[in-house]
Design a protein that fits this description.
By secondary structure, this protein is of the alpha/beta class. The protein has 3 domains: about 10-55, 434 Repressor (Amino-terminal Domain) (Orthogonal Bundle), CATH 1.10.260; about 65-165 and about 300-330, Rossmann fold (3-Layer(aba) Sandwich), CATH 3.40.50.2300; about 170-300 and about 335-340, Rossmann fold. It is built from 12 helices and 12 strands. The chain has a 6-stranded parallel β-sheet, sandwiched between helices. Helix 9 links the parallel strand 6 (about 190-195) and strand 7 (about 225). The radius of gyration is 23 Å and the shape is elongated. This is LacI family DNA-binding transcriptional regulator. InterPro entries: HTH_LacI, LacI/GalR-like_sensor, Lambda_DNA-bd_dom_sf, Peripla_BP_I. GO terms for molecular function: DNA binding. Keywords: DNA-binding, Transcription, Transcription regulation.
Length: about 350
């Protein structure tokens, strides 16, 4: 890298590569931390000057080691679950006079990695996040952890990372949903889902398969419909094709936007819910009760998950919470409505 080349983005990761040091060491050296030797601090400062490293606008608050700001990174805001979780987070941070920066990845790993790279320079004191569905490489998250910024995951978590995590009992929830459909008389149940890494998707698939197996039904891969993770008409077409080919009498939708796609697909095929096909969805949308027919849902404790995530984060920031990272599992609730009526 040539000093003065403004087209190159010089950040703490750049300095770390240049000096063969960790980003945590670079961060501490730039903050004049007592546990970094004077020699290392000098090397870091000289490299920063040579490469034209410019701290972000929050540098003054970094010297005080507090920005009174936390980041919230989520896949989308249209999903009712995430908007309710943000309300729960806000209920904790507002009384503490903290601010929240909300980042939307739009379920993109690339956007997520770019956001965490930006945060690594000390823009915030802590992070609460739910990962994008296509996040498999977690090196960008590990890099941020190395700077000492505490991270709390909620809902979509990374199993290979050591961090505080707030999740729901997705396996049991899917098991409950499938069992509910079986008890309503369904014999051929399909799972409508999206592709992706997050553990919640595999847990829901496993719960669905286990419920069928426990009732003497062999689950076929053909019964699993994989849609896109976007709100598009393409999903309606995918579900219509599946309905024509497999003729399921029950559907479990694993994410909120697939409920709308399922209803539209059934409507276009003139299939009546629940007479021809019964539907249950993982969703917190408040309009579920006024759909035609009202939708049976797996209701996640979104508000309380957000609140708990914020309380754990502030426990880490204050030093009150010093024990090992924890994973809290919060139960969801089946709310039966007309879409699964017998």
């Amino acid at each position: 890298m040539t000093a003065g080349n403004k087209s190159d983005k010089v950040n703490m990761k750049t300095l770390a590569r240049e000096l063969n040091l960790s980003t945590a060491t670079i961060s501490k050296a730039l903050r004049d931390s007592y546990d970094i030797s004077p020699e290392t601090k000098q090397r870091v400062m000289e490299a920063a000057r040579r490469l034209n490293y410019v701290p972000n606008a929050y540098a003054s608050s970094l010297r005080k080691q507090s920005s009174n700001t936390i980041a919230i990174i989520i896949p989308e805001i249209a999903d009712s679950f995430f908007s309710q979780a943000i309300n729960g987070i806000e209920s904790v941070i507002a009384p503490k006079k903290y601010h929240a920066l909300i980042y939307l990845t739009h379920d993109s790993y690339e956007r997520e990695a770019s956001m965490l790279d930006d945060l690594a320079s000390g823009r915030v004191d802590g992070l609460i996040m739910s990962v994008a569905s296509n996040t498999q490489d977690t090196s960008h998250i590990k890099t941020l952890q190395e700077t000492g910024i505490p991270i709390v995951f909620f809902d979509r978590v990374c199993e290979d990372l050591t961090a505080d995590k707030i999740v729901t009992d997705d396996f049991n929830s899917a098991y409950t949903a499938a069992t509910h459909l079986l008890q309503a008389g369904c014999k051929n149940i399909s799972l409508v889902t999206i592709s992706g890494y997050p553990s919640i998707l595999s847990a829901r698939e496993q719960g669905y398969r286990k419920a069928l197996a426990d009732n003497g039904i062999t689950s076929e891969d053909a019964g699993i419909v994989t849609c896109t993770n976007k709100y598009t008409n393409e999903n309606v077409g995918i579900i219509k094709e599946h309905l024509r080919a497999m003729k399921p009498d029950g559907i479990i939708a694993t994410v909120e936007h697939l409920a709308t796609s399922t209803y539209l697909a059934c409507d276009e095929l003139k299939l009546q819910i629940p007479h021809d096909v019964k539907v249950v969805c993982f969703t917190n949308q408040i309009t579920a009760a006024i759909l035609n027919p009202p939708l049976t849902t797996i209701l996640q404790p979104a508000y309380n998950m957000g609140k708990q995530a914020a309380e754990i984060l502030f426990g880490r920031l204050s030093g009150r919470l010093v024990e090992a990272e924890q994973e809290l599992v919060m139960p969801s609730q089946l709310v039966a409505r007309a879409s699964t009526a017998s």
